[in-house]
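Here we describe the complex-level prediction in full. Unlike the single-chain runs in Section 2.1, the two entities below were treated as one system.
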Amino acid sequence: MTDYIFYIFLDMAVEYFAGTIPDCIHSMRRHDTKKPETASYERLVFRNASDYHYMKISLIFEGGNIRLNAAHFKQLIISSLRELYGEIGAALPFDVLKFEENTLSAVLRVYSSALVRLWSALTLLGCYQGQPCGIRVVQVTPFLLALSGNSRELKLD
Amino acid sequence: MYSNLEKTPRHLLVCEKSNFKNEKSRHGIHVENHYFNYRVSVLIPECGALPAGLSTIGSSFGKYYLVKNLPVYEIVEQQFLDLCVKKGSFYALSYNTRIDQDNSAALIPAGKLILSVDKDTYEELGLEGQQSQYSHKAVMRHIITIDLTDASFAPGTKKYKRVIWALKEKKPLACDFLMAWHPSGEGDFSLSSYFAKYQCKEHTPSVSTKILRDIPSPVISGGELKGKPEESCDSQEFLDWLGAASADIDCNNEASSFLSTYCCPEPSVVMGQACLWTVTGFLLPEKIYMLLEQLRHYFDEPKLAHWTTLTVHGFADSPVSWGVAEHGFHKGGENLYNFVIFRNHDYWLQMAVGTQDGCPP
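The structure predicted for the assembly as a whole is:
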């Protein structure tokens, strides 16, 4: 009996090496070597796809060492919006994504439809707690990734 | 009431999906034709230290040169073309010139000199050019393209003499140039010795590595560019999230927060750590392609990460974006592209341009 089983396995081995393997083992091998699906080519073009615009700005004081935190900074911009556009303008939703207290620089996010109103309010922002100040807009872009690579910052001596 | 104020200039985003092993994949062409690159960033999820292969490539990015107050005719003269331009890929871009205000110049490896000049300079120079594609009623900018490798530009020809005369005597143009050279064979040419009589300084690209910890990241699938509800995010959401991760912006905000409501697109997972590696300088497409190939083979060994990204930022003040397509600066000069590389050699390629740019190829 054992010899008979041995000869069955020997027979399968010979068939395997001869290229004609039994169906059950062949289908297992086919399953093992099944290649993962790869992506087919696709191209999408989006025009004005970004709902938001991003602004990198910095607050500059004429003199004095004035410190403020992110909440004060946002409140300052809201007050400038209120001055220019009233209560409706003050309700304009925008985000202070990042604020650095040391350099008084920030990254803002605003809906594209509200960009002009926010930018004009930033331009006309004139003072904080009686101190003259201004906002310098460093970069404006619809792609947040573009804020990480502004070649105009390249300074070589 | 504010309908006119709600309009913004147009921008374009092209998202492509393919596989690196696909014969018709054009990833190499896109990298090769984007000549002027300012910054390259690589983000590797679930990675606490920079892989050895990347740091080797980072150190081999090659030097670039800043030549101050170089007259433009010097890179047009036949001697320079024979020694340098025709024996490799030479890249030159005017430094510290703003494409929307000043005169800019660029020399691309195809041997074309591209001058982007204002109206007065164009009239004084007297060379043939075209109006900028982005002019309005008053044409304020002209683009002059001179093919230096053309047969009609051989020394002694009328065209050659006119160009040299215009740039040398009629309206001498000079600016600071960033330049780099990638030789096609063995050569002993040195830019620093050729331009020794000008102030030529060698620079090395600066490299920085940052490890990000405990950041939420969107779940994406290589085959689903538009995402699948509840399963994966789309390519635009991913690009925005990548911008937030690169700029170190908090993605864990509540909807009721006063300061920011920005949060990671869903579905998302939290990455324990991620390596963000950045190279900044005047970077050549040849080296960027080597970096891309290295990243492709990152997944040859089993890794926890499902994807990595390679982001390339172009110069905002370059006269061209891809190939000889005109590039301008309206409210921004973005011309960047981003590869998302998946384990099975699938990739996404996202190319973003601003207002004064044609559609990426």
